[in-house]
Design brief:
Chain lengths: ~140, ~625
């Protein structure tokens, strides 16, 4: 994002976590409330990024392993003679999906709780910041009128 | 090649597989021989009658032909075959006419990867237009969703007027110039190199010998194969506009339009060099009988976003964007935030409930109820999206939502939800009647605070979601009559039962995304239950339709007329139950899309006239009177 910009910028989805990173603009006269908001958002972003990147990586890896073990059981190779990757059909993958979901259930529960908490705090802070800004603007308007 | 409209001097070879068991003169497999044939140095022959998947000339640095594995056919490893640079990006395709053609799909996926239009000297020949990019994206989607390439093509390509908004076909182009074709694309139309899409004649039997043509690149005017078709340089791209968008109104019917036979333009057959003439390739073109306007509609219980044309988004996706709210974008953003199409669906089910109520029709009440329901639905959907940002970004279906893309801040989303929900519920409570308002508020609560968190906690969310979807018609009914009659419950029951085949069929194809995203859905954890429930509720629909006349909502013609469609969906439900595969789930899903509006329509036409019931009871009159009192003057 350009240096002179006064807004936050949001980027393309991350390769691992599929989340879009945000670069926050730090205004020179940032109030403590605004700073809290920005830091909360940055922290939330980092947490989410960590979680999903790890989670997706684990998913991909376990999927590979599953495919490999199933193919092995069937007596096929991971890659056939022409170099193409062999895949399993949807029904066979269904077992894996079910397994993966139940394995990660706890992790998701924990993440859910954290995400809801963070989401509410951030939105609430945003509300506060917006309110303060609006009041400030009104005061400024009154002064200038 | 009859009816073919590919015009490209590059397109060249047509080769067919020799009949099974043929021993080729040079020994080895047919695929390897084709690979060799691809070399300009050798003349080729065509034999046999079946086309076969062969090779993809990849845009790889070493320009090798990498034949695709094809089950049941000898496959070749032919690393030695090298091709001249100018062949890079060209495609040799064929299709084995079997339903099990995963390898073919790989090939198609591979070929789509080479969408870089790389000319012989490495420069871009064309910059794919937005439409071409969309075409490509659409085709990728079709590939993912179809059971095999044949279906993917049928999904993907639809006949259309050339130059019409959905017509694409791509091929490697030497240049655009072309004349004489009455249907030409403007030069700005998207062209993607190396990809040929052929319409297959839908003969009803997939075992019919394949109608694909192999196309090889002509290198430097040297004609290679036994037979080639000299096309005009004009290319024309066909694309099946598979819009994954929601239905705007539940009563829309799928439009049926046959594939147009591609006009054959300026086609010549030539024999090259000293190759003996061979019989022409069979090239029946397909005519699919219906252009399925494939739309993905989620029930009120589930959420779906409309996937707007990927072209704009794929470009945007790769850029950094400023988080700044632009006022002229706002309506679109809010529409997507509130899932406006789904909301429209909800409103129409509510109005169906209103219409079915046995009271004289009151327009103001109807409009107020619809508006209130719509606002409530917008609010609920916005809150739902607000809650689900990181999960949505990880699922393919939902990753283009406004909150995920940062087009709107969470605060604004909440404010918007509040500014829709509060007036909506107030409108319902004060303008219609308190019961409807209460139902609306309850529904919002159920959807946002029960269904949305439950999606990640237990599979019972589907049942909760079904209730969420069932409430709008009940709301419509209570808006009209002011009380919860058996009729309201029946209508709600019909919608409740409908949700299950609809959603279960849909979720069958999304298992991977659900599993990775951590959603607890029946299709992932209890697949057998998923299918059982879907079937059970299809049958329940039949039962409920029969109960309708008993409760004096409709005449006895209703169960009779609705029986065929109910039986059909039950049949599809049974197929889904038994086969448990992609195609049956899709069939069931798409059936559910038209089944509901039809059912409601039939119900409405069979509605028992109010006049017949006037002597029926004070109760109704009383309700009606009460409803009238509560309405604002």
């Amino acid at each position: 994002p350009p240096a002179h910009s006064r807004n936050d910028w949001i980027g393309p989805p991350d390769k691992h976590s599929n989340l879009r990173p945000v670069i926050f603009y730090v205004p020179p006269e940032e109030s403590p409330l605004e700073r809290r908001l920005r830091e909360a958002r940055q922290e939330a972003q980092a947490c989410d990024q960590r979680f999903w990147a790890r989670h997706n990586r684990a998913f991909r890896q376990e999927k590979e392993e599953f495919i490999y073990s199933r193919l092995k059981a069937k007596g096929l190779e991971m890659r056939d003679e022409t170099g193409q990757k062999a895949t399993l059909n949807a029904e066979e993958m269904a077992d894996f999906y079910k397994d993966f979901l139940s394995k990660n259930f706890r992790k998701h529960m924990q993440y859910n709780r954290d995400w809801y908490k963070r989401n509410f705090t951030i939105t609430f802070l945003m509300g506060q910041v917006a309110l303060v800004r609006a009041l400030r603007w009104l005061r400024w308007k009154k002064k200038n009128v | 090649m009859k009816g073919m409209c590919i015009m490209n001097t590059d397109i060249l070879a047509v080769a067919e597989e020799p009949p099974v068991g043929t021993v080729l003169a040079d020994g080895g497999s047919w695929t390897s021989s084709l690979a060799r044939r691809a070399s300009p140095a050798l003349p080729c022959h065509a034999e046999g009658t079946r086309a076969v998947a062969v090779g993809l000339i990849r845009a790889s640095p070493d320009d090798r032909v990498l034949p695709l594995r094809n089950r049941g056919l000898p496959h070749a490893r032919d690393p030695a075959a090298t091709l001249p640079q100018s062949w890079r990006g060209t495609l040799v395709i064929a299709q084995q006419p079997s339903s099990d053609n995963g390898i073919g799909r790989e090939g198609w996926l591979a070929l789509l990867r080479l969408h870089a239009c790389v000319a012989a000297n490495g420069q871009e020949l064309f910059v794919p237009s937005d439409r071409a990019l969309a075409a490509r994206a659409g085709f990728l989607r079709a590939l993912k969703e179809a059971a095999n390439i044949v279906q993917a093509l049928e999904l993907f390509a639809k006949s259309d007027t050339l130059g019409g908004e959905n017509a694409y076909m791509c091929a490697k182009a030497e240049g655009i110039g072309g004349s004489g074709s009455q249907q030409r694309l403007s030069e700005k139309e998207g062209v993607l190199p190396g990809l040929f899409v052929w319409h297959l004649k839908k003969t009803g039997i997939r075992q019919v010998p394949c109608q694909f043509v192999h196309l090889c690149h002509v290198a430097n005017d040297r004609l290679i194969t036994f037979q080639y078709f000299n096309f005009l340089k004009r290319m024309y791209v066909t694309q099946y506009n598979k819009d994954l968008s929601q239905r705007a109104k539940p009563k829309s019917d799928s439009i049926v339009s046959p594939f147009r036979e591609l006009q054959q333009l300026d086609q010549e057959k030539k024999v090259i060099h000293k190759i003996r003439p061979v019989p022409p390739v069979h090239q029946p073109l397909s005519e699919t009988s219906s252009r399925n306007e494939l739309r993905e509609v989620k029930s009120a219980a589930e959420t779906a976003d409309s996937v707007t044309p990927v072209r704009a988004e794929s470009k945007d996706d790769r850029q950094w964007k400023e988080i700044k709210l632009r006022l002229d974008d706002l309506p679109g953003i809010l529409a997507r935030l509130s899932k406006i199409k789904l909301t429209a669906l909800v409103v129409s089910t509510a109005s169906a409930g209103f219409a079915m109520a046995p009271v004289p029709f009151d327009l103001t009440c109807f409009l107020l109820a619809s508006l209130g329901t719509g606002l409530a639905s917008c609010a609920a959907n916005s809150i739902n999206q607000f809650f689900e940002v990181p999960f949505d970004s990880n699922m393919n279906r939902t990753k283009n939502r406004p909150l995920v893309r940062g087009q709107i801040s969470p605060l604004l989303a909440v404010c918007f939800a509040a500014s829709c929900g509060v007036p909506g519920i107030a409108l319902l409570t004060l303008g219609v009647n308190p019961l409807t308002g209460a139902l609306g508020a309850f529904n919002i609560f159920l959807y946002t605070c029960c269904y949305t968190p439950m999606k990640r906690m237990s599979i019972a969310n589907t049942w909760v979601g079904a209730v969420v979807g069932a409430i709008p018609p009940v709301m419509g009914w209570t808006a009209a009559t002011g009380s919860l009659d058996a009729g309201a419950l029946l209508l709600g029951g019909i919608l409740y039962s409908w949700q299950f085949p609809h959603f279960n069929a849909l979720s069958w194809g999304l298992r991977e995304d659900y599993s990775r995203g951590g959603y607890c859905m029946m299709s992932v954890t209890h697949p057998a239950l998923c299918r059982r429930v879907a079937l059970r509720h299809c049958l329940a629909l039949i039962g409920l339709s029969t109960v309708a006349p008993v409760l004096d909502i409709t005449t006895w013609t209703f169960p009779i007329i609705s029986l065929p469609i109910n039986l059909y969906i039950s049949y599809l439900g049974f197929r889904f139950y038994r086969d448990a595969d992609r195609s049956s789930s899709r069939k069931l899903f798409f059936c559910s899309l038209w089944h509901l509006p039809m059912l409601l329509l039939v119900m409405f036409t069979c509605k028992k006239s109010f006049l017949e019931k006037e002597d029926k009871g004070d109760l109704l009159g009383g309700n009606h009177g009460r409803a009238m009192e509560i309405r604002l003057p």
